[in-house]
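Subject: Sanity check before I submit

Could someone independently write out the structure tokens for this chain? I want to compare against mine line by line before I put it in a report. The sequence has 294 residues.
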Amino acid sequence: MHPGRVDAHQHFWRLARGDYDWLDQGDPALAPLARDFEPDDLAPLRRANGIGRTVLVQAAATMEETEHLLALADGHPEIAGVVGWIDLSDPGRLPVLERWALHPAFKGVRPMLQDLPDTEWIVHGPHPAMVQALIERGLRLDALVKPPHLAALTRFVERWPELKVVIDHAAKPALREGWQAAWVAPWRTGLAELAAHPQVCCKFSGLLTEAAPEQIPSPGAAQDLITPVWEELLRQFGPERLMWGSDWPVLNLAADYGRWADIAGRFIDLLPLPDRQAVWGGTAEAFYQLGRPS
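---
Independent answer below. Compare away.
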């Protein structure tokens, strides 16, 4: 176990709670995820891969789920941070946000931007009072985006330079479409524009599920496919603004926890020691203000 290693992006859910709409649509491709995933399921995987702590990220667009995640954090000290959901467009939710901010595990919010029909919602949707509350309480914003959202996210970041933002899953490059497809130019340009703002970090996570199964038949093939992504992220953000995450259990659609940790390690472990420590945990620790491990 490496106490300083942090999985900066994982999920738990309990289906009986009934608010995971994206799992209730009968998509057979999501069948492996249609069961409960709880801390006891992740614990042996964490330990086997040397991960000491995690950041637990929302998977339902409800405040009730955030309450559930905070309750899990109360009983599981390995959950070092919780990123929840709240309607940022509604200033009437401000008292809830203020209450959550008192919880030591609550670190920020994630609007599920990839699921909104308006790719520019982040520019005009959030109420200024809610964004200002995030800033004043030292909370963070996780940006669940794809390449078409990046230009709007840049405008938001420019408007709110004091808000720390992290791009989830490297903005989901559409690897299954190949490197000659239309997503590549806006992805590269958008990342560069965001990386120019020092308050923006990026997660090295969620990439295997953006590939087609036939593209990643082996760890070596996955490494080859992801190399251009890693090189772009490293060039734009540097290790001090990159953090590793598993995106477990969504990861299970493409690979198991250990396989992704191994593939990621093929990149991260070539860095000098301080940079390795940053990507494996130091960046997440600093960004989310997780404190030092005991």
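---
OP: Matches mine. For the report I'm noting this point. The mean pLDDT is 96.
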